[in-house]
Amino acid sequence: MAPISLPTAQSRIHFFSALSNHNYRYFWLASVFTYQARWIEIPALGWIILQLTNSPWLVGVVGFCGMFPMALFGIFAGVLADRTPGKKLIILGQSITILAIATLIVLLSYNLVAFWNIAIISLIIGTGWTLDFPTRRSMIMHIIGERNSSNAIIMDSIAFTISIMMGPLYAGLLLTVNSITTIAIVLCLYICGLFILQFVKISNLHFHRPTNSSFEMLKEGFSQVLTNRLLLGVFIITVVSNLLFFPFRAMIPVFARDVLEVGTILFGVLGSASGIGALIGSIFLGSISERKSPARLFAYGVMFAMAMVCIFSLSRFYPLSVLVLFLSGFGIAGFATMQFTLILKGSSENVRGRAIGIVMLAIGVQPFGILLVGATSEILGVTTAVGITSALGVLLLILVVLKFKVFRQAKSF
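Above: the chain's sequence. Below: its structure in token form.
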């Protein structure tokens, strides 16, 4: 058995290599603020709706509204990302989100908040994120270049997982004050992220606007994904994961209040547990200078996370629930950090935005998964619903890994 080698000083330097680029430092910091706002907003809206309606189904409907624009417009946003230079789409998307959050604050302030207007606001926020998502990730390659792209993508993933870790915790703490304060903090974080983004300078000298039509660009993007076994496998695994696994997060408020019978602070800790595990896992992956099989990390990581959520659905003991969600975070780290590495490195440079857009189409099935788990929770109970969907997800991913050899190979590229 080969000895286990710990990260050396050189690998620790490699971990921060992307941040040596001053443009990427600003970009990364802007993402930290933006992701943090997103992950306070999501559990906060879930808790507000649960308190307002007392319905797991309606919690799921609001989650559906927040994700549905990605399913509807994601691929077209990918085309826009390939046709639009720089950060214009990110600025547009974040501006839409900021206006929606400001509207929510006004509604909360005048006690006019209701299920229907929160659902509409969630749709608008989801539209803003749909414009932001493919552009933010394809910009990484323009800012950092091919050489440090893997490290930069992992650093972006770490920013995201920091937010998954801290966002629900902050939401739980802030909700003990009131909903208006919570959403006001979300607004401030979004504004800070947009402000810092203005310091990112991107040259458009090497940008070549495509001359073919949007339809032809869509066809080219789908052709590349469908004929590339790696990209097709990533697409299928992303569909399964977003349909049967990630929707469980929308039910965390229901688990906290109705199953584990805890208040807002412990709800925040529960929601943060998987993020803490994902952060530790992402930091470890970022310290490794050479990752020979990102495809295996991607597939096996999400399978492990699903298995942990199966155990979580059976738990009625709060510390055990926190522990298994923490462990699930290690699997989520492999999935999240490798997903865009595989897409950006596996696709041609001129179709990266569209490749991400097609994966957004896969991520866009998540709102239907949220509706599924919400409706099943209303009928069978939230524990049964999450247990069934996550177990089914594990079985389907085993079949995908058996079908696609690339997820069993020692090297992905």
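Confidence is low (pLDDT under 50) at residues 1-13.
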